[in-house]
Structure formats: structure tokens, C-alpha cells
Amino acid sequence: MVKQSKFLSLILRHQPEKIGLILDEAGWVSVSELLAQLAAHGRGMSMEELEYVVVTNDKQRFSFNADKTHIRANQGHSLQTLDLGLQPVEPPEILYHGTVERFLESILPTGLEKRSRQHVHLSADIDTAHKVGSRHGKPVILKVAAGQMQRNGCVFFRSDNGVWLTDHVPIVYLSIN
Ligand code: HQG
Fold first, then answer.
1. Contact, 49 vs 3, CB < 8 A?
2. Whole-model pTM?
3. CA neighbours within 13 Å on the CB side: how many for 138?
4. Could you tell me the distance, in angstroms and rounded to a whole number, from the CA of residue 61 to the centre of ligand 1?
5. Which residues have CB under 6 Å of ligand 1?
6. Surface-to-core class of residue 123, CB atoms within 10 Å of its CB (0-12 exposed, 13-18 middle, 19+ buried)
7. Which atom of ligand 1 is nearest to the CA of 111?
8. pLDDT digits (tens, 9 = 90+) for 104-158
9. In degrees rounded to 5, what are phi and psi of residue 73?
10. The complex's ipTM?
11. CA 62 → CA 10, 44, 76, 86, 134, distances in Å?
């Protein structure tokens, strides 16, 4: 199921065309089409198994619409044409970003960039930032003055699974935690 969940992340965030799917402009795809295309590509799963993956996913990465006819990833897309339709929200005063030391040298001149993703990903708690950073090596936690950024006109969003998103974090708002 973890393997299947990772494959769903790939399809619903990055490469739907890999199994012949096209996401709509907000990232949704028909559940019946998804199940059919998964089966056609040797990754078949039942509706019950898909529901199990959605419910048990450790970061709640996926959501169904109300009547479960459509599904999408809550965040993390690299498809630049998507508009998840998130509304700007007021962030907490401080947010965190987990990274690693080897990236600091290039973060210093430019601040945090979204790179291949649609947004820079931030979290409200240090623990989560720690986990995110650990994916790249020994974590370094950066503190982001999110409240100040917002007062200066930067826009923040929060995905349905609680990840804080913004376009770019200029270096003036960053400090090492
Ligand atoms: C770094 C996972 C050099 C940035 C996690 C990060 C998260 C720079 C890496 C989500 C830089 C990009 C996102 C700059 C940023 N110079 N390096 N100017 N600006 N970076 O994986 O934030 O499991 O694309 O610090 O839990 O690590 O996919 O982003 O280390 O929520 O659901 O460039 O991915 O969620 O790495 O992680 P990533 P991230 P999922």
C-alpha cells in the first residue's frame, strides 16, 4: 500500500500522463478513470483499497470530493499549470522550514525558492520541519518570520493537509533556529 501511495503521489502531483490521465485545472481527476488507468498499467486497485490509502496516508496527501467521484493531491505538485484554488490565509507569526547545511550556501543569496514545486513548503511546528529536512540529510531548521512577511504583502496558503505554502521567502525573513 505504501508503494501504491507513492505511485499515486507521482501520478496526482507530477506525471498523470504516465498512465494516460489529465488532471483538471484544480488537480482533480475522476476516480473511475484513475482506477481504470491504474488497472490498464498493471497497478490495479479496488475502490476500497484507494479509500484505505487516502484515509491512512501518514500526511493526508490526498482528498476525495464530497461524493467521492474525484480525487486530488492536497499539495506538492510540480505541474505549474495547476491552480488548487486555495484562499490566502493569515499565517502564524513564525513558521519553520527544514533543510540541510549543504543548501544554506545557495539559500543565502536568494532566500527559499520553490524549485521544482509550486510553492515553498513551511510547517507550523519544528518537529515536522525536522522530518522534512531529514529527507535530505542532517536537518537544519530555518525560522521564517511569516507574520512580518504577510504584513509586508506576501501571501500564504495552507493546504488541506496543513502544509503552509508561499511563493518565496526572502533572506531577510530567515534565521537559523
Ligand atoms: C531547498 C514532502 C538551495 C529546500 C515534505 C529543500 C514537504 C534550496 C529543497 C514537501 C533553496 C527542495 C516539500 C535555495 C530551497 N538554494 N536549496 N535557494 N531554496 N532549497 O523536496 O521543502 O512527502 O522540493 O530547503 O514533507 O524539502 O512530498 O522541498 O531542502 O512537505 O508529501 O531545496 O515534500 O512532502 O526540496 O519538501 P523539496 P521540501 P511529501
1. no
2. 0.86
3. 2
4. 16
5. 59, 61, 76, 99, 103, 106-107, 110, 112-113, 115-117, 121, 132, 136, 163
6. buried
7. 18
8. 999 999 999 998 889 999 999 999 999 999 999 999 999 999 999 999 999 999 9
9. -85, 145
10. 0.94
11. 12, 18, 11, 15, 22
